[in-house]
Amino acid sequence: MNLTHLRYMVEVERHGSISKAAAALYMGQPNLSKAIKELEKEFGVPIFRRSAKGVVPTEKGKEFLLHAKAILSQVEKMEQLSREDDSSLEFSLLLPRASYISHAFTVFLNEIGAVEKMNIKFKETNSMSAIDLVADCEYNLGIIRYPVNYEAFFLSAVEEKGLKAREVWTYDYVLLMSAKSPLARSVEIRASVLDNYIEILHGDNIVPNISETFLKKDAQLGSSRRHIFVYERGSQFDILSTVPSSYMWVSPLPREVLRRYGLVQKPCADLVRRNRDLLIYQSNYRLSQVEKLFIDTLDEVRKSIIV
Question: In this predicted model, what pLDDT tens digit does every residue of 157-169 receive, in sequence order?
């Protein structure tokens, strides 16, 4: 077994086709097919299952590919060490649209101070994409978010991809609104009054493979008759801060963010929407000192939030 063959296997899985993978690798299809057969013989079981539509990993093949990606990721990091000096900082994070995490990231950046060389990837995405990208070693860290009643589904997805998970925060969603909203002046907010307001929702947080009945039941919680779907946090804050008749369910925000946008957050007296955020990374991955600093900063920011 050699690293080149491992890269071949990962490329075949990515394309779902031996011919497409061969084209991407600038090699002949017969040579790639031969390499696959040799590796399968050495491994002792089929890695891919052939079909008229292409190839897909077998169950053992999925496990093999998880280890292959982890090995290639570690080799890449070792190669980076030879190209970079100690002043270079590497950091990559996938996260949900969560202002407390983004705020912690800005605090973290100020804490690390002047760094001569820096390569940082910071991307907001949904939980399933985060799981896939961390499993494929494209990002070192990810934070996924889900309602606690979906926990079995998400923990199963994390385990299936061979990832390690640790809790960041379990919290109840709060209602976020403009300080000029009538809701902001209410002593107590009940779910029934929300029908009179416009609900802001993220439009790309659909959870696949979960019972449609379950999704519909969950979607009815606190739903309004009027909705606006947004796809990034900048739009959500613009609408919330300038349209007093709008509101949004969010994870609790730091006071600095609320002041910046002129917003108020309040709990709903008769409707609790409990969520959990988990940090995920490769099971054999060792956190760097920089990553540990970010996690500590995130924990400090979380503890400072008051609802």
Answer: 999 888 999 999 9
Q: Is the dihedral of CA 229, 230, 235, 240 positive or negative?
A: positive
What does the pLDDT look like over 168-179, one tens digit per residue?
999 999 999 999
Rg (Cα) of the chain, in Å, rounded?
23
- Three-state secondary-structure class, residue 185: helix
CA atoms within 13 A on the CB side of 175: 33
pLDDT of 223 > 60? The answer is no
* pTM of the complete model: 0.73
Nearest to 99 by CA among 189, 232, 245: 232
Measure the CA–CA gap between 33 and 22, rounded to whole angstroms.
9
| CATH architecture of the domain formed by 174-272 | 3-Layer(aba) Sandwich (3.40)
From the list 124, 127, 131, the residue with the least C-alpha distance to 98 is 124
Contact predicate 45/88, CB 8 Å: no
Per the DSSP assignment, residues forming a β-bridge with 16 are none
**Which CATH number applies to 3-80?**
1.10.10.10
